[in-house]
Amino acid sequence: PRLAGCLHEGVARAEGDVFSPSDGNCTVCVCLAGNVSCISPECPPGSCPSASPPDCCSCQPAKCSFRGRTYAHGARFSLDGDDCTTCVCRGGEVECSFAPCPALDCPQHQRHLRPGQCCFSCRDPPRPSGCFVDDNGVEFPIGQIWSPGDPCELCICQADGSVSCKRTDCVETCPYPIRIPGQCCPDCSAGCTYMGRIFYNNETFPSFLDPCLSCICLVRAAAAG
């Protein structure tokens, strides 16, 4: 005798019952006149129609054909000979963008593009050849030592183009030193200064206070005799 219903995978189904098998992948079945008829959804062959695949279709995103090459979905690549441009394959379409470059704080004439680089960079400033010390354009070469008007102050031109100055501390070692024009410290080895006059070493002269006295200038000392 004919039974009302269907038996599918060990499970009894009533007449007209609509169900999905456990591994049917969105397959829909119906019990009709004791027979089970199943219908599977139609999925597009190969690629998916959108970036997110439908729930019931097992498909692969479309590949990209670009300049004679094929790239998988999500692949990133650079153009031939242009590492500054990055491209990506998205669902059959290729999207390219340029690498961002930093802002430069140097003038236009100091910018250059190094081989293999995508962005311009600033050239290194030229090394100074000397030191400019005034508005008249006077320049001293690197290593030059000079006095800026004060004989007790000496300046030197540094390698980076800056000027470094230092004063000389004088220590008098004799009671009557001689001050030579253009020389910083008094000179005790050249002679003696006595009553406003200069006498050289071993020079004998009469005393200004008593003509009967004779004086002599000695190195590092002045003595009367």
From TrEMBL:
Q: Which UniProt keywords apply?
A: Glycoprotein, Secreted, Signal
One GO biological process this protein is involved in is:
cellular response to virus
Chief localisation class = secreted
What name does this protein carry? VWCE protein
Please provide an example of a Pfam family that matches this protein in its UniProt record: VWC
In which compartments does the protein localize? Secreted
Q: Which InterPro entries match?
A: vWF_C/EGF_Fibrillin, VWF_dom
Choose one Gene Ontology CC annotation of this protein and give it: extracellular region
Which superkingdom is the protein from? Eukaryota
Residue stretches making up the VWFC domain: 4-65, 62-123, 129-189
